Amino acid sequence: MDDTNAVERHIPVDVTAVWGAPLMAIHCAHCGEAHLVPDGALPGRCPYCLQGPVAPQPAYLRGEPPEQMLTYKVADRGLAGVLERWAAGGWFRPDDMNTNKLLVRARRYLVPLWLADSHVEATWRADVGFDYQVVSSQDHYREGGGWVSRDVEETRVNWEPRVGRLNRTYENVAAPALDDHRAVMRRLGRFDLDERVAYTPDALVGAVVRIPSLDPDAAWPGAEAALVRSAEADCQAAAGADHIRDFTVAAEYTNLNWTQLLLPAYVTWYEEGGQVWPVLVNGQSGRVDGVKRASARKAQVAALVLGALGVLLFVFGGLLALVGAVFPPLVAVGGVVLVAGVLLALVAPAPMIGVWVSNRRTGDAGAK
User: Fold this and answer.
1) Over the chain, what is the mean pLDDT?
2) Residues 314, 280 share a domain
3) Is residue 138 in a domain?
4) For residues 167 and 306, what is the distance between their CA atoms, to the nearest angstrom?
5) What is the pLDDT of residues 48-70, one digit of tens each?
6) CA-CA distance, 231 to 223, in Å (whole number)?
7) pLDDT tens digits, residue range 132-178?
8) Do 123 and 163 touch, CB atoms closer than 8 A?
9) What is the DSSP string of 192-209?
10) Residue 351 maps to a domain
């Protein structure tokens, strides 16, 4: 592997001089992630996990800034609508899950990604499949009409072995720059990498940047896997096949070049149950990922109100039943009111139980 754009991570880098913006590096004691934040603006908690305290640390980065980035299609003005649609709906919405609060807390969050260019010279082998149609006859019994036959067309695959050589250059093959790349992308969703623009320091004003935890050497297995997938698709297309399987390749990679790309996102949060719940927004597509908790306090108040109404109805129904000893028509009315009070008291805990089950489910999902 010939790396023509290596990353030196053994000596600290003057981030402000290299990136062209006043930045400082910080490290989270809780999740262990490192970020670049505006110089002099040390946050009170980690910009990503929003849990642990952070402290300044030397920045071990390559000696050049990112080359490219994706722009924010969800501008700050449009973020309010995105957050409102996400937070709307559901029972017992927490007071802190408020659009204005979420918007005030929101910060631009830039996620790194490596793009690899490489010339690939390889020999490959695979089984390629070609679809063909087969018509068969099936008999079935029709009630009152005896046995009838009809033609059924099905698609089958004819597999053939193929070998060949590949000599091609691939550009901008995505490779992870973070250890938890898959988890982050699962939350943010897809990005259209074709909309890349050149990096400008102005884009970092007020933003937080996640520092890559994987340098190109560590990211190479991911890049190689992506290159193999691209080669497999090209070989399938060259064979004119509908399917391909058992693809193996013996490749030599040369003229390898790495580009750092920054992906746009927002991070915000709300509090519920004495815990902070992060919310991530894809700055290009507007996709929102966050655990939507219900307010246990509001559910408790609703349960107490229902229980109190049930007790009042029970007492009132009992009084009506007693008065019915003098005025018999009230006996039936009192019985109905008494039963209604009992039923209302029985269902009073339902809001608390429902919120507990919902929060348990969303808590488990958020922990994955």
Assistant:
1) 86
2) no
3) no
4) 74
5) 888 878 999 887 788 888 999 99
6) 12
7) 998 877 766 666 666 777 777 888 999 999 999 999 999 999 999 99
8) yes
9) -GGGEEE--GGGGTT-EE
10) yes
Instruction: For the chain, give the number of residues.
Output: 368
From 3-12, 104-113, 147-156, 167-176, the region with the lowest mean pLDDT: 3-12
C-alpha separations of 59 from 26, 50, 180 in Å: 8, 21, 19
Contact 211, 36 (CB under 8 A): yes
Q: What's the structural domain count of the chain?
A: 2
Q: What DSSP assignment string belongs to 9-43?
A: -SS---HHHHHSS-EEEEEETTT--EEEEETT---
- The CA distances from residue 213 to 117, 149, 193, in Å, are 20, 65, 21
Residue in 271, 277, 299, 276 with CA at minimum distance from that of residue 358: 299
DSSP string, 217-241: HHHHHHHHHHHHHHHHHHHHHHHT-
Nearest alpha-carbon partner for 50 in 324, 272, 247, 259: 272
For residue range 212-255, list pLDDT tens digits in order. 999 999 999 999 999 999 999 999 999 999 999 999 999 999 99
User: pLDDT tens digits for 283-296?
Assistant: 999 999 998 888 88
3-state helix, strand, coil in the chain (%, to 5): 35, 35, 30
Q: Determine the pLDDT at residue 71.
A: 93
Same domain, 69 and 201: yes
Alpha helix ranges (H) inside the chain: 15-19, 76-87, 99-105, 181-188, 216-239, 296-323, 329-347, 350-367
Q: Do 191 and 248 fall into the same domain?
A: yes
> Residue-wise over 31-41: b if at least 16 C-beta within 10 A, else e?
eebbbbbbeee
